Structure formats: structure tokens, C-alpha cells
Amino acid sequence: MEKLETLLAQIGNRSETVTGTVNPPVYFSTAYRHAGIGESTGFDYIRTGNPTRKIVEEAIARLEGGDQGYAFSSGMAAIQTVLALFESGDEFLVSADLYGGTYRLFERGWRKYGLGFHYVDFADLDAVEETITEKTKAIFLETPTNPLMQETDIAAVSALAKRHGLLLIVDNTFYTPVLQRPIEQGADIVIHSATKYLGGHNDVLAGLVVAKGEDLCQRLAEYQNAIGAVLSPFDSWLLIRGMKTLALRMRQHEENAKRISAFLREHEDVTDVLYPGRGGMLSFRIADEKWVNGFLKSLRLITFAESLGGVESFITYPATQTHADIPEEIRIQNGVCNRLLRFSVGIEHADDLIADLAQAFKHMKEV
């Protein structure tokens, strides 16, 4: 198989033979002509399948080492569809440090339909194993977690899941297949908010799922079609364009993040830097909560915004943005305190980013 960089750059090339186009066309048609009863081109209706979306789905399946890929209108739509696999009474073990939007969907959405969620620390697998009951059906991991950047040993959790007959679902948004391929480590399902690094340009809302195993893939395909939260043709094309440069971007994100984490660790107004040593995401805590707003207001280059993974650097305040729907006592207990900032390090020159941080630290106490 070609190297990952080659697979990414070649997404969509040779996808049709009539014109020889290198850049794949966007197929906007919602319906497809049938020559007769039982005669189909493989496409019938846009919700079930679309040629442009198919390119994305086949690409992510190959990149992640899965059997089938599925493209959705958002990362949350992807998670919603995966949860449709389960029945009332089923329970999940979930990363205690979790994106607030996922927590909201679990607690305000699926819990009222009878699903149960138990939030655990996967650093202690013996303790995790003790929480498993006959109702436990799946494990849902973020690794690294959002926003505390805690990594989990996927292979070890996979071994645990297989001993108990559980599905292992991994959110791979932060690392992408460039840095981590969970299916190769035993995961059954991989989820991406493709809005983030895969799209990479803050211009497309998308979610992806990859699964391994014929029966599981068939069930996911049925729910994708039935629920219908699929990715549009044009957004599929935007995602294809973004994914082509993913490997290049991830290298620059990581190079910058390493330099910035080193700078932050030496700064007197920073008490903690949470960076696992790879990727472009990090978090840090400012020494005093009252300086947070002044720091954000003082930024001139880095953008205070609620997203991540784009070429532009973003800083997010989880307490009022991404994790605002988690009850404050739970949020703070988990470590997402009111001094914590999450930094999606972009691909600008690291010197310029560090200079912006330095001047923001200097002026934050004056605001």
C-alpha cells in the first residue's frame, strides 16, 4: 500500500475515466436514472449514496485501515448515528475528560432514551474493569482527551473490551490517521469531527465514521441512510481538498506546538502546560483566573474562537465555550477549571505566535 502522504494527496484522482479529470467533480444530483427494474448504476438517491461523498468515505476507510467509511453533516451527527446501534438499557464506559458537546448529547439526549453513561479514568484499567456489568455494551474513548490532552493506551483498552465482548469506539479527531490509527490497535469504530484537522481550513462542517467488520458496517450503513444526516456533495468536495494537505499541515502544527509548549512552560504566569508531545493541540492554565479575559482581549494574531484544527491558531476558553454544558462542579472536578485555556496551534510562523503570546501576557493585567 502507498504511504499515507501519497494516499492523501491522491484522494479523488482517477475517480472517473470519461474526461480524465484530476480534481474530482461535484455531483449535485439528488436522484439517479434507472434503465429498468432492478437495474442501477449503484446510486439511487442522494441520502443513500453520492459519487462525491463516496470518494471521501472510501478515502477515510483506507486511511484508518477500516472496511467502510461514512460521511456525515457534522461530527455530532456521526456520533448520533453510531449511538443508534444501541438499545435502551445499554451502558457505556466513557472518558471522564470529554468534549462538552459529546457530554451534552449523552446526558441530555440519549440518557432519556434509556442509554447509560459512566465516566471513568482509563489510566487505571483495573478500576475500569470493575465497573463493567452485563449492561455494559461499549467503550467510548477520546485520546487524547479534550481539553486535558490525556492519552489512553488503545491496545490495552481494546484487550479489555474484547475480554468482555464490548465495542470500542475511539474519537480520533485530535490526532487524525497521520498520528494514530485506532483500528490497527483494536478499535471497532473510529469517529472524526472532520470540521477540524481533516478539513483544516475552518470552512466546512463534517463528520466521519470508519468501522471494521461486515455486520457492523452493514448496520451503520442502514442507520446512516435511515437517519439521513449525510454530508452534502459540495462539503464532501471541500473535505477532499482539505485532506490532501493533511500530512503537511500536521507536521507544521506539531512543530509549532512543541515550540509553544516549551515557551509556556518557562513563563511565570503559566502554572501548567498539558501537551502529550505530538500533534497540534495543547492546553495551559494561567496563574490567576482574573487575568483570563485580559489575556484573550490582548491577543492580536491568535484568534479567540470555539473550534480547532484549522490553519489559523485558535485559543478557546472551555469554561464558557466547549464545556459550558457540563455542570460546573463536574467540570472543575475533572480538571477543566476557570484558568484553563485550550490552544489549537496553527501553521503560522512559531516566532510570530510566541510574540503574540508574550505581548498578551504582558498586557493582560492592564485590561
Automatic annotation (TrEMBL):
CDD domains: CGS_like. Keywords: Pyridoxal phosphate, Transferase. The keyword Transferase applies. Its cofactor is pyridoxal 5'-phosphate. InterPro entries: Cys/Met-Metab_PyrdxlP-dep_enz (IPR000277), Cys_met_metab_PP (IPR054542), PyrdxlP-dep_Trfase (IPR015424), PyrdxlP-dep_Trfase_major (IPR015421), PyrdxlP-dep_Trfase_small (IPR015422). It holds the Pfam family Cys_Met_Meta_PP. It comes from the Bacteria. Its EC number is 2.5.1.48. One of its GO terms (molecular function) is cystathionine gamma-synthase activity. Belongs to the trans-sulfuration enzymes family. This is Cystathionine gamma-synthase. It comes from Bacillus caldolyticus.
